[in-house]
Structures are given as structure tokens and as C-alpha cells.
Amino acid sequence: MAIVVDDSVFSPSYVPKRLPHREQQLQQLDILLGNWLRNPGHHYPRATLLGRPGTGKTVTLRKLWELYKDKTTARFVYINGFIYRNFTAIIGEIARSLNIPFPRRGLSRDEFLALLVEHLRERDLYMFLVLDDAFNLAPDILSTFIRLGQEADKLGAFRIALVIVGHNDAVLNNLDPSTRGIMGKYVIRFSPYTKDQIFDILLDRAKAGLAEGSYSEDILQMIADITGAQTPLDTNRGDARLAIDILYRSAYAAQQNGRKHIAPEDVRKSSKEVLFGISEEVLIGLPLHEKLFLLAIVRSLKISHTPYITFGDAEESYKIVCEEYGERPRVHSQLWSYLNDLREKGIVETRQNKRGEGVRGRTTLISIGTEPLDTLEAVITKLIKEELR
Ligand SMILES: Nc1ncnc2c1ncn2[C@@H]1O[C@H](COP(=O)(O)OP(=O)(O)OP(=O)(O)O)[C@@H](O)[C@H]1O
């Protein structure tokens, strides 16, 4: 039986039914653009969406369009700045999207613009223009399209609504001050997704695209732990695209192996394909007993076949590992500081067990999500043996 029951749910163009944790941004966009979309022509709406990759900027825009596409006379024109970088390519793509005949070359910039203006006016067209990944565009090109929207006299109406999408403020700061002034204060920010937010996004995706029972919430949690930000200010993580990609790869890996369920090891292998795994250099630098504790965690995870083990499991396993290597175990509090260090170095992930199933109080759960356990065990064992030789 297939685990992936609907591939389209994992494609970049998929727009999910709801966008958890982006309700506010969607509403802000609606406030800025909704009136114009319902009844275009009376003013020039514009917005800038800022946030690091995978924070939902594009999908929120697509959602807004989905809400309005049957209620508006405007057309959606989406320009990806990675693909269309120079002026001629962009204006050519706009013309193609609007289905208007246009020469490919041979005109000056001003002539091209005049021709576009003429078509918009003559054909009574309105366009909702999105310049995605706009930091790829030279500031003068960006300025040209920002200013175009103001030309109500030439256009015969305010025929353009403009959204610029970038990763940070540089996309606006690089503009000359007067053009920046046109974009004004209409900035909508997309912060990196936290672990819990990524979990919610993954759960929706899994329900829509994977067979029931093929994944556990712990598996989704495990992926959320390695991709989600610790706090909304943690800009190294928080990319929903990466999380969804790891889920998709894990599902396929399990399916190709003829299994019905995604296993923790599928996640580790898949995440290693897209992240970098754990480098040996980082492991070499760990004190001997931190290495022994890590080996204990690895072994405990291997035996359990579950995404998480408890701190207690790791401690028990550590005692056995110490015995094996003839070392005297370090005390409980020292193990906590090892665990903190391993977490700060990104080698393990930890979370609190809030469910308290059969456990009194809060238990710390430990997982390893970015490196297959066999390779990790082999490297640590080798390092420990070298150190004790
Ligand atoms: N809140 C959300 N709910 C459901 N899916 C989401 C959400 N946010 C992002 N996604 C999904 O994550 C992926 C990346 O999102 P999106 O393309 O919108 O990111 P982006 O911010 O535009 O990134 P980039 O700057 O790289 O273009 C998409 O598959 C999108 O559907």
C-alpha cells in the first residue's frame, strides 16, 4: 500500500486549505488589497512582504488570490525574480501572462513601458502584479515597476496593485528614497516558524497527502524539532519548505522499502540529504564523557525504534556504556550539562513531554534527527577508541 496517496499535496504550487499561523498576514494583505481587488481602479494598493525563505510569503499571496479570483476583474501576474531578472524578460512575461501581443526585443525601455500602458488602457485590464524574490532585480528595474502603478493619468485608472516580496529590508533600503516612499509603510513581516508551528503545518500536509496511519505525530514532531526555530528570532531555522520536503522524502523512503509506516531512520536519512548531517569535526571536540553519553543516546534510540527516548533511558544506557569502556560514570548533573551542549551544537534535539503519560511531572525527551544512527554510532565509537588508546 502506498504511503504517499497524493503527490500534488507536496508540489510547490499546492495551496493548502488553511494556512496555520499566517491568518494575521493574510488579513493584513486583505486589508491592503481587498478593496481594490473587489473594485479595482480607484487607488494604487501596494505591499511588501518580508521574511526568510520558507516562511509562507508566496503561499499567503496565492491564498489571497484564491479568495478573490472569482470576485475580481483583475488578473494575477506572478513574476519570479530568480527566473526573470532583466527588464525585457519581466515585461515580456507580464505581457505573456496578460495574453497581449508583444515584441520580444527591439524597443527601448520607455517604448516597452508605453506599449504595456497602451495595452492595459485599450483592453481595460487590471493587474495584480507580484514581484517575488525581488532582491534579484536591480533597484532601477524595481523602481520602474513601482512607479508604473502611479501612472493613473496615462493608464486611465489605477490599473495595478503591486506586491514586492523579499527576504529582508534590503530590498526596500536599496531603492532611492522617493521610490521607497511610494512603497511606504505597507510592510508585512513573516517570522521564522517555531517548532510547534511547523508541527501544525506538517500535520495538515500529512493528513492531506499521506495514508492514514502511515505516520505518527512523533515523526512529525521529530521533523519539526530539526527544522523549526527555537524562538521567532532564530533566523537559522523556521523554513516550512524544508520541513515539508523532509516529510515527503521520508514517506517515499519508507514506501520504497515496502513499509507501511515512516520510521525515525527514514527522517534521519532524508534530512541528511537536505541538511548537512553531523560533521565529524564537531564530534571530535566533545569531551570523552560527552562522547560516551552521546553514544548512549544513539544506542538507546536504536533499541527503541521510536523518535524520542527519555533522559532516564539515556542515563541508564550511559552507565552500561561506561562499564563497557571501563570508565567511572559522571554524576547526573554533569549529564544535564552534556545534554545542553549537545543540543546547542545541533547534535541532538530535546523537548519536554507535556502529555505526562505515566510519567510524573515533565520529562525531557531526546531525539537525533539529522544523521542516520548507524553512521553516527560508527564515528563516535571510533573517536572514543582513539581517545582511550
Ligand atoms: N502557514 C503555512 N501553512 C501551510 N503551508 C505552508 C505555510 N507556510 C508555508 N507553507 C508551505 O511551505 C512551502 C514554502 O512556502 P512559501 O513558498 O510560501 O515560502 P516563501 O516565504 O515564499 O519562501 P521563498 O522566500 O523561498 O520564496 C510551501 O510549500 C508552502 O505551501
UniProtKB/TrEMBL annotation:
One of its GO terms (molecular function) is metal ion binding. Residues 43-194 form the AAA+ ATPase domain. ADP binds at residues 20, 54-59, 193, 205. InterPro entries: AAA+_ATPase, AAA_22, Cdc6_C, Cdc6_lid, ORC1/CDC6, Orc1/Cdc6_arc, P-loop_NTPase, WH-like_DNA-bd_sf. Residues 294-379 form the Cdc6 C-terminal domain. ATP binds at residues 55-59, 193, 205. Mg(2+) binds at residues 58, 132. One of its GO terms (biological process) is cell division. It holds the Pfam family WHD_Cdc6. Keywords: ATP-binding, Cell cycle, Cell division, DNA replication, Metal-binding, Nucleotide-binding. Involved in regulation of DNA replication. Belongs to the CDC6/cdc18 family. This is ORC1-type DNA replication protein.
